[in-house]
Amino acid sequence: MIEKKQCLTDTYLYREIYQQPEVLHKLLKDETNHIQEICEQIRKRKVDHVVIAARGTSDNAARYAQYLFGAKNRLSVGLATPSLFTIYKSPPRMDNALVLGISQSGSSPDIVEVLVEARDQGALTIALTNHPRSDLGEAAAFTIDIKAGKEHSIAATKTYTSELVGLAMLSAYLLEDEEMVNAINHLPMWMDETLKIADEINQITERYRYMRDCVVIGRGYNYATAFEFALKLKELTYTLVAPYSSADFLHGPLAMLDTGFPVFVIAPAGMMFPEMRNFIDTLNEHRAEVIVLSDDDRLLRKSRIPLRLPITVPEWLSPVTSIVPGQMFAMFLAHYRNIDVDRPRSLHKVTRTT
Amino acid sequence: MIEKKQCLTDTYLYREIYQQPEVLHKLLKDETNHIQEICEQIRKRKVDHVVIAARGTSDNAARYAQYLFGAKNRLSVGLATPSLFTIYKSPPRMDNALVLGISQSGSSPDIVEVLVEARDQGALTIALTNHPRSDLGEAAAFTIDIKAGKEHSIAATKTYTSELVGLAMLSAYLLEDEEMVNAINHLPMWMDETLKIADEINQITERYRYMRDCVVIGRGYNYATAFEFALKLKELTYTLVAPYSSADFLHGPLAMLDTGFPVFVIAPAGMMFPEMRNFIDTLNEHRAEVIVLSDDDRLLRKSRIPLRLPITVPEWLSPVTSIVPGQMFAMFLAHYRNIDVDRPRSLHKVTRTT
Fold first, then answer.
1. Which of A72, A97, A212 sits opposite B76 (nearest CB)?
2. Assembly ipTM
3. Does the predicted model carry a pTM greater than 0.90?
4. Which of A9, A53, A243, B147 has a CA 20 to 30 Å removed from the CA of A101?
């Protein structure tokens, strides 16, 4: 007997992907004043650099923050090494830092521990979470609620994009930059437009039914997108995926490339264009199977399988929309592989690491 | 006609792996005074955090520095995002930071650019390189020569361990900690002992002749070792390898695990023991093929294929010796696969990324 195929539109994952415009709308509506207040407090302090503690999907949001706060706010951002706090019990000094904890559940003990230590050291602490009453929410001086509503699916989608937008709001209001704020306010609409890519993604996904491994490339703002797309593929489809920046890939991993090896390149239009163009040329010279996600025709023409982003958004906000095709690709591929997209094997919604 | 098999002992890679005790001896002998002088200068400044720019193997040395400077010197360490400097032209402020550039060749433009900008901002800059007269060496206020001698093989081995030891010397002399200095001085001897593992590694490697992909796990100090072992496997054997910290692996990638999937666990004795024990138990529950590299019998007994480190070194220095079996494993596996270990496909010794 053939097992009954899951009806995709009935799954939490499907619905949560489609809730994203509405979640962003709610986040912008409900949290703007609160974030403005927090930014006033931050400006009163002499914040010198930023340290972020996060795991999994939230760690990919932290990767976005490295570029966002770096380029826009000129703040150097480091990712915390929780084991220094929880295992070696020898945490670094962070008194002049802004310490940010990002976690959907707010309950991974290692992330909470970083925030507790930072607060004890006198650092300014902020939590970004979907559960403001969690241990993480309670530990931080300021807590931003990402307002995503309950996320049932084990693979995080709407909480990732709302974390990104929470970070974008922090960056913009810290600078009191009207143009940035304006752009952020367009995001629910842009997200709506981006969701229209679903059919196209569904059509090309079947080709990868038996893909066993692949590489995902992104650089700059979309380094985060490469990591998050890779994580969705691992969680939902059990593919072995390695994410890289284009520069890191050339320093060694390039040797792995064989004819037909699938390489996904996340390359929305922007300053990263020349880098991505040259990189795609290198991939083609090695006869890789190049799948380009972009809104730039010049890059799409160079790819074996082009994935056209339906709209162009400012590069610094492009990670919010450019992950959506990745979420969908992973969902459709899991479906073609008869995997329950809401409950991939071995995983639980909340992972408590120490 | 069967192609003539490469004689491994005639290769640069083989010889460079075996040069490691001698290189470390030379580094300790020639650079100690210079590093002490640099540390005096660092102490005069109010260094608040550390930013490191590096790529490839040197980026893995930077990962070691995150734990070393964090745990021992209580300095928060962030890894630089070079594209903010070279592509977005919007570098973060780093005036209170110690900015470190690590590069074997000293000639990757993106890494040089980070140091130039840091110096222009008034930050304290240090280069760690095998070519002190390179652009990187010239850009930094202080340059530490890692004294590895010319490295011919494309895959870096002796320059990696000498970068690690250069960092360890910085950490120890910054603290003027005699116990640490003492331990560092034992490294050439410990390295000599570790090289005796060669036959054992050679014997178990053949089993992995057809391994297509695998995962390498390390956490804390040996997070760096996991990344560097993974990089050697990619460069030399074209295996698709994903390195993870044990904690990150549980936040998603765990779903990839299938019966017999090879997972290498780098777990020298130390504070990380309970974490590694629990993690190996989880792997066994999922029926993975667990290969443990350790000097701790309790962990070795839990593994399908145990790899016993010949000696025990203090955990904070264990990355210097624990990478050696990884270098050898990658070399022997490449040899079993008839790959020229000195010239893996697609790679050049110096990679110039921007």
1. A97
2. 0.93
3. yes
4. A243
